[in-house]
Amino acid sequence: MKASEQKHLKEMEHWFHHGEGKCLFDAQIEWVDAYLSSKKPSLCSQIGGAPYHWDRYSKDTHVVHVDRRMEYFCLQGHSVCADFFSLPFSDESFDAVFCPHIHEILEDPKQFFNESIRITKTGGSIIIMGLNPKSLWSLQNLLARDNFFPWMIHHWGLQKILNELGGLPVRVEREEFKYFGFYSSGSMMGGVRFKLIEKIMHQHFNQFGALYFVELVKTAYPLDFETSNAI
Q: How would DSSP label each residue in 91-145?
């Protein structure tokens, strides 16, 4: 990864885990917990970000980061410091690979997606989490003419993600949107969840959630008919 990308990664991690994005990180934890409890994958990898509650469900989890200081947060013996474009794992190593917001700080996310798919077993899941540009948070960001997300390079919508994945050996298993509260950095409003608004928005305008979660399933690479005949 480039030095600029590593800088944005650290800013992103701080924003989610210690800053205004903490409420979104908590929402992500709820979703990840629900996924792990239902799917129960044996071998997992999380690329970037502070670890989720892996010790509850899957102790064989490798958390990949680019900063040695992140080892403090990781499960003992499963902290891996590596370049996200060259992951130190064999092909088809994991049942599930979690990619929280990494594509938003990279200049070439398709290369990263290729690497994430490579280490996922056929039939396994690649989980991509991102911030939704159609959400209330993004609308506030636009109206305020300010940048709530100082670490972000790309503000990717879900459809743009799916377009970027075109041609890769994956299919969409599930799409979900979560968290419909307003953004607030003030101490008075910080952490307030507008329950009524969230309920109405979730029922009638689901795609306006601040977060999106895409669960992809890795399919078998298509057989090249001409190549196979030549062999």
A: TT-EEEEEEESGGGG-S-HHHHHHHHHHTEEEEEEEEEEEE-TTSHHHHHHHHHT
- Alpha helices for the chain (secondary structure H): 3-17, 22-39, 54-57, 109-118, 136-144, 158-164, 195-204, 225-230
Alpha carbon separation from 188 to 79, 92, 143, 180, 210 (Å, rounded): 37, 48, 21, 19, 21
Q: Is there a contact between 134 and 157 (Cβ–Cβ < 8 Å)?
A: yes
Tokens (6 digits) for 103:
């594509």
Name which CATH class applies to 3-220. alpha beta
Contact 137, 177 (CB under 8 A): no
Beta-strand pair 94-100/79-81: unpaired
Is residue 124 within 8 A of residue 97, CB to CB? The reply is yes
Which residue stretches of the chain have pLDDT < 70? Answer: 58-59, 68-77, 141-148, 150, 152, 181-205, 221-231
8 A C-beta contact, residue 92 and residue 121: yes
Rounded Cα–Cα distance for residues 118 and 97 (Å): 10
Kindly report the pTM of this predicted structure.
0.83
Token pair in block for residue 159: 């459809």
